[in-house]
Amino acid sequence: MDTREDLVPGDTGSWRHYGATTLPKALAAALDAFAERGYDGTSIREVASRAGLSVPGLYHHYPSKQALLVSLTTTVMRELLERSRQALAEAGPTPSEQFDAVVESLLRFHMFRRNQAFVASTEMRSMEPASRAAFVALRDEQQRMLDRIVEEGVAAGEFSTRYPEDASRAVTTMCVAVASWYHPDGPLSPDEIVTRYLAIARCTVGAR
Amino acid sequence: MDTREDLVPGDTGSWRHYGATTLPKALAAALDAFAERGYDGTSIREVASRAGLSVPGLYHHYPSKQALLVSLTTTVMRELLERSRQALAEAGPTPSEQFDAVVESLLRFHMFRRNQAFVASTEMRSMEPASRAAFVALRDEQQRMLDRIVEEGVAAGEFSTRYPEDASRAVTTMCVAVASWYHPDGPLSPDEIVTRYLAIARCTVGAR
DNA sequence: TTTATGACCGAGCGATCGATCGGTCGGTCG
DNA sequence: CGACCGACCGATCGATCGCTCGGTCATAAA
Predict the structure, then answer these.
(1) Given CB 3.0 to 4.6 Å as the disulfide criterion, which of A53, A177, B75, B131 pairs with A57?
(2) Which of strand C's nucleotides are less than 7 A from any protein C-beta?
């Protein structure tokens, strides 16, 4: 009944496992800088310095500052969607099980990829229209994944919320916000946060 | 003379009423610009232009770009706290009534003062340490107001959440996030949004 | 050995940044 | 009238911005 399972290395549950980021050093430098000072608050010299490169050295790998941001945000949204899809695919057939899986995936992602997730969500307005549109499309797809589950849960009588779409967005919102306050050295472990927020999220949609 | 009457003590429900903003034109210009492009993405020339002033004309009223941001954020947090306190003071004695009042206050504020609220929450990192600390203190006070209510609600048996503090933060999060998507021309009226989100927030804390 | 290529950098481009200088102008007061 | 003041502005400051030019250097295929 409960979805609590042990971490199994291998195929099953790989969406739960987060290794160190494999970002190229220039992207990693841009990510740290953007997370700290924001896109417009970060100079290309700052990124180059953090990457151990000169400014032309940085431009050898990326054609513009904007390209750094776009590369970061598309990478992060693709990974989130991929992991969520995997979690959903491995979950049981009931809306409750699928809800738990996707919410846990959302939570873990926003803890273990918190900087990427934070930058992506706060720097949307710094993206050029085309890139922003592509990003929003991926984000909406992620949202609709949860929307559909909640809707089906209500139809199946597993969730009792009167406002499925709003509740679904509220759940996404609280999961995304984890990226803005979670810190690995904080008092709560990722597993404990998953436990708590999963319980809260279930209440939010009125799970029986 | 000042004809302000929406903050007169004893005016029951005045925390629900939002007139047009009374911000000086320079601050209003800065607010619009910051909301659209962010603090670092906005030049002092852009603010001056929107305010119908020259750059030195703008500096005649505010000593620095940072002062514009600080003035905006302190104003907005003070108004939020003032309205929330008023809502709480006028609410009934039970945690449920107080919860509803404060959540409704939070929701209305983040709809009718959405630009101010949005800028304040997104541009925290652009504030100098001292100003940021003062802002965070006010924000924490607002958070603790709801924390206390939820805690008392659990103690009184009115709320059933196992994680009062986390649920309280989740509720605040979803209310604050309203500022980032609400639009007056949207399909939902403020009253309808209050109705829906109040129901969702009650579920989140496990209200009976 | 020659040529080609990817990885990088010192120097500097034009533009724009936040901020300031020395004013002008209309009003108020004695 | 003349002294003063708040409100405002054209011009410009030094610094920094994103970005680029013309290279060097190590490696490797031809």
Answers:
(1) A53
(2) 7-12, 16-22
The single-letter DSSP state of residue B156 is: T
Q: What is the CA radius of gyration of chain A?
A: 18
Mean pLDDT calculated for residue range A187-205: 98
Contact B30, B66 (CB under 8 A): no
Lowest mean pLDDT among A7-21, B3-17, B103-117, B153-167: B3-17
> Under a CB-based contact definition with an 8 Å cutoff, are residues A68 and A62 in contact?
yes
Residues B1-15 have pLDDT tens digits of: 333 333 444 556 699
For the cut 90, the answer to whether the pLDDT of residue A9 exceeds it is no
Please, what is the average pLDDT of chain A? Answer: 94
pLDDT of A13: 67
Q: Are A77 and A120 in contact (CB under 8 A)?
A: yes
Q: How far away is chain A from the Cα of B40, in angstroms, using its nearest Cα?
A: 5
CA B159, B161, B163, B166 dihedral sign is negative
Contact at 8 Å (CB) between A179 and A111?
yes
- Give yes or no for a contact between A201 and A174, defined as CB atoms under 8 angstroms apart: yes
Over its C-alpha atoms, chain B yields an Rg (Å, rounded) of 18
Which two structure tokens, joined as six digits, stand for B163?
């994680």
Who wins on pLDDT, B40 or A9?
Answer: B40
Angle, CA B9 vertex, CA B6 and CA B14 arms, to 5°? 40
A196/B contact by beta carbon, under 8 A? yes
CATH of domain B69-205: 1.10.357.10
- pLDDT the model gives residue A180: 96
Instruction: Note whether A170 contacts B200, CB cutoff 8 Å.
Output: yes
- A69-80 residue pLDDT tens: 999 999 999 999
CB A72 within 8 A of CB A66: no
What is the average pLDDT across B138-154? 98
Q: What residues 140-159 of chain A have any CB closer than 8 A to a CB of chain B?
A: none
Structure tokens at A99: 């809800």
The structure tokens listed for A27 are 């992207």
B208 touches chain A (CB under 8 A): no
In chain A, what are the domain boundaries?
69-205
> What one-character DSSP code corresponds to residue B162?
S
Classify residue A94 by its DSSP letter: S
CA–CA dist B174, B120 (Å, integer):
16
